[in-house]
Amino acid sequence: MSRRELDPRKELILKVVTDDYIESAEPVGSRTIARKYNLGLSPATIRNEMADLEEGGYLKQPHVSAGRIPSQQGYRYYVDALMPQKELTEEELTLIRSYFEDRSREIDSILQQTVKILAQLTRYPSIMLGPTLKPAVFKHVQLIPLSARDLLILIVTDMGIIENRVIALDSPVAQGDLDRVSYILNKRLRGRPFIDFKSSVLRELREEIKANNGIFQKAVNLILNTLETRDKERIYLDGIINILDHPEFKQVEKFKLLMELMEEEEKLYRLLSSRQQGLKISIGEENQEEAAQECSLITANYEVGGQVVGTIGVLGPTRMEYAHVVSVVDYIAQKLSEFLSSL
Amino acid sequence: MSRRELDPRKELILKVVTDDYIESAEPVGSRTIARKYNLGLSPATIRNEMADLEEGGYLKQPHVSAGRIPSQQGYRYYVDALMPQKELTEEELTLIRSYFEDRSREIDSILQQTVKILAQLTRYPSIMLGPTLKPAVFKHVQLIPLSARDLLILIVTDMGIIENRVIALDSPVAQGDLDRVSYILNKRLRGRPFIDFKSSVLRELREEIKANNGIFQKAVNLILNTLETRDKERIYLDGIINILDHPEFKQVEKFKLLMELMEEEEKLYRLLSSRQQGLKISIGEENQEEAAQECSLITANYEVGGQVVGTIGVLGPTRMEYAHVVSVVDYIAQKLSEFLSSL
DNA sequence: GCTTAGCACTCGCCTTTCGGGAGTGCTAAC
DNA sequence: GTTAGCACTCCCGAAAGGCGAGTGCTAAGC
Q: How many CA atoms lie within 13 A of B111 on its CB side?
């Protein structure tokens, strides 16, 4: 990533063009810049600089008699070197903070609400990859008989995520047996991370499995199964319609492409799960996913106890309000991390 | 609802116009009908009949030199009296049946998948109002200590719906106390419908509440709270993008209106929850919700043990494949009822 | 008396045409 | 290196015109 390879005046003009285009969605001409931004330069000078910037690949012209817009490379330079640091407004800060102060809800609704607030503040579609169970720790495991033939297995993690499954039994089981199995499972599992289950815990349990009847085996299988099902973390979405406010999606086709991406959990998952590195911006064709190649994606990871567990992100047109979105995403990720860690 | 008020030939022409318009989305002219449907009538005759139908309010013209399209009243007559009964194809039947044969998943995913299959078969956006808890029966209630200060309350219904909440305690509680409370709750609640809780059960429990310590009170409050939160049933959605395949939504504005409706749980809830009467079709402005007034909504209720518990529906343009959608919605509602009742 | 052929007429839609305007690149002067 | 001037390009929106689908009416036919 080449920074500072342009001289200051070219940088200034690239910045002004990008800022203006982000705001107006219209190609920016030399005259507009001279009039609007008072750079102390004549349109002709600006034209010369813009021609150079175009030659360097930072700007492009939709057609010969239009103004310039940033190219993908231009956005990249802007994001890396020119973008202003944008502080969140007092209202925004208050909104986010006050939202995370309410601790009474269950985790799923908190996550859903977090995406909603992200979409609301950025006015772009927002995505979240729910917390992975990998670093999660068993807090409680229990078998509960629902009827003669149905057994409920309950798994609670330290983060408050609760999984439950029902197993149908071949034959009735005595409460005492269940309690014993629950007791052993808890003794072995409590405090252990999920990730150890398949590797080490399973081995340790082998003898107990032998010693006990089929229930134990079933319970263990169910835990395994649950861990695997939950391996693909849930994806949360909100504010998809926001994308319709932007002229680049006025043609239904463009919108449909994106909408299809949004309905494909698998693709979203791929898009988000590869992003384990703090705040990340990918612009246009830097995105692998074809449907997102006219978009930019800004993501940040959130953590529990210092360990990355998930990702939140915002998807918008390449002509996106980078500065603002970066601040919002970053701050919300941070607050969410604090929140989850405090549970 | 006036049926059979048109003479047979007018009915025939209304039916043909409607069928053709549903298929082609283009206004239908007299010539087209004469050529395509071989009614043994000349275009001129058909024109006369169409003029009569227009006068009667069954057809309308988008503009004077275009063909006719059905009016809302025309669709209504079509739906009430003319619509052919459409059998599902063998593939469709197999798909639905095979889907409901797999009994291993949890209820939430079953409901989500049901909407998905509905959207897939109809090619319209599909909605479901999740089963109400009103007629649900307590199957199991239990308090489980997670740590010194956290208590999990678990409520299982006969339909396999599982609710859980965590309460923070002021002070530690002995396992014995918890077991006793769980025992009493189960004894009192098992087999009783949720709806009795607030009215009669609560009264019966009053003495126990007094006799026991604060836990009991807390648990009861939490159950109350859970029942109330779950009072608004969950809404499931799928296939919203399908709407983009239809020319009436090519303008982004139209689509946006509908999309906003889809994001407003409250409105969807109102739209669906008022439909306790088997299969129902509402056309255009028969819908209360403004955003749906260029749409038709076809819904059916599903039942558990003979009692209506929820609604599934399909939303499409008024120019909708009524016959096909009716069959699909009806059949899926029926299969879903059987499925849920068998749990 | 209903049905139909003929015909004039209407009107949306598509294509073409045609300025106007915004913006450029080049050149020459400062 | 900067800037004024100017010719040139080309998108865009409005206006114009022709096409075609479809109609309603009239008068003749069965």
A: 24
